[in-house]
């Protein structure tokens, strides 16, 4: 049986890293992208040491031409694209009320979280339509369903990701392409650690908003992505 191929953007750290490892463990060819070439190549070598095929590509999802190159080169190398995980995203400089946020910060969030997701969906869909379909998983957030104090700009971009996911799912449902979103709560990632270190939140206060009274792990979310992307119960 021909191996399936997945692209994970922002795949060198955090949720993306756990997701890439999970797909590799379950027999996929894995392409990870990111802006940090050092960490990306280190992870690629780690995954390849397990016997899986893995490639790292330096990509800035804010640049449309980078995303086009990512998908084109993946299809050229592995024959087709089966799963695309739109994981790359940033939280920006949170900690300010809406009226105190900077325009520069907002534009960076829009370019990364919204346009980056749009570019990924657009060109993954085009590639998948040529080969009979596939699956796209977007990383949204509980911020895509709620209003969070001191995170207005981030919240707005994640609402946009939810909207793009809903529209894409409806438009391509009859063409063999499944489009879903995962909406994590507070997960133990470098982004959250930076917010805690900056004094914006405390780990205890964040954990208390969850019914289980704990922060989520990257493996928690990666398992959900694997299930959504493949629609069978894959495990890390």
TrEMBL record:
CDD domains per the UniProt record, alphabetical: SDR_c
Keywords: Oxidoreductase
Family: Belongs to the short-chain dehydrogenases/reductases (SDR) family.
Protein name according to UniProt: Short chain dehydrogenase
């Amino acid at each position: 049986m021909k191996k399936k191929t997945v692209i994970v953007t922002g795949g060198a750290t955090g949720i993306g890293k756990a997701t890439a490892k999970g797909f590799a463990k379950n027999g996929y060819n894995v392409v990870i992208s990111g802006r940090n070439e050092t960490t990306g190549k280190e992870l690629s070598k780690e995954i390849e040491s397990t016997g899986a095929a893995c490639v790292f590509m330096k990509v800035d999802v804010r640049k449309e031409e980078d995303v086009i190159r990512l998908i084109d080169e993946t299809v050229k190398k592995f024959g087709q694209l089966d799963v695309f995980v739109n994981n790359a995203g940033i939280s920006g400089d949170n900690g300010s009320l809406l009226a105190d946020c900077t325009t520069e910060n907002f534009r960076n969030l829009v370019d990364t979280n919204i346009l980056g997701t749009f570019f990924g969906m657009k060109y993954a869909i085009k590639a998948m339509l040529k080969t009979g379909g596939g699956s796209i998983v977007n990383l949204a957030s509980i911020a895509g369903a709620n209003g969070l104090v001191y995170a207005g700009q981030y919240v707005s971009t994640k609402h946009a990701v939810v909207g793009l996911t809903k529209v894409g799912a409806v438009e391509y449902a009859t063409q063999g392409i499944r489009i879903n979103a995962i909406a994590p709560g507070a997960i133990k990632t470098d982004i959250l650690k930076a917010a805690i270190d900056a004094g914006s939140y405390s780990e205890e206060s964040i954990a208390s908003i969850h019914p289980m009274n704990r922060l989520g792990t990257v493996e928690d979310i990666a398992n959900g992505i694997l299930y959504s992307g493949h629609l069978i119960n894959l495990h890390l």
